[in-house]
Design a protein that fits this description.
11 strands
Length: about 120
C-alpha cells in the first residue's frame, strides 16, 4: 500500500485546511487509515483514525471538535478537515494504513506510511 498525503500549507490561527490521503489500496489487511503529526523537536503523535469499512472514527483529545476524519470509498481517498487551527497544530502531517486501531500507541499498528505534508499555523 502506498499513500500520498496532500493539502498542507500556511494558514492563520482560526483558519481551516483539508488534507487528503490517497492510498493505492485500502484492503482487508489494512482497513484502518490514520493521521499522525510531528512537530519540530517533538515525537510523532496520533491525530485521528478511521476504519475504512465500518466508518468508526477515533480522535486525539487535542483535536476533538475541531478536526474531522472521513473517507470517500468511491474515490478511495481519506480526508482530514481541520478547522479552528491553532499554532500548536503546526507539524508535518502523515497518513498511514494498518490492520487495527489501538488507543495505546496507535502508530505501532500502522504498517504503511506516506510522506508527510507540512501544516503551518501562524499566530
Amino acid at each position: 500500500v502506498q499513500l500520498q498525503a496532500s493539502g498542507g500549507g500556511l494558514v492563520q490561527t482560526g483558519g481551516s485546511l483539508s488534507l487528503s490521503c490517497a492510498p493505492s489500496a485500502m484492503n482487508l489487511a489494512t482497513p484502518v487509515m490514520g493521521w499522525f503529526r510531528q512537530a519540530p523537536g517533538k515525537e510523532r503523535e496520533f491525530v485521528a483514525a478511521i476504519h475504512w469499512r465500518n466508518n468508526i472514527k477515533y480522535y486525539a483529545d487535542s483535536v476533538k471538535g475541531r478536526f474531522t476524519i472521513s473517507r470517500d470509498n468511491a474515490k478511495n481517498t481519506g480526508y482530514l478537515q481541520m478547522n479552528s487551527l491553532k499554532p500548536e497544530d503546526t507539524a508535518v502531517y502523515y497518513c498511514a494504513a494498518g490492520k487495527v486501531y489501538s488507543g495505546y500507541l496507535p502508530e505501532r499498528y500502522m504498517d504503511y506510511w506516506g510522506l508527510g505534508t507540512q501544516v503551518t499555523v501562524s499566530s
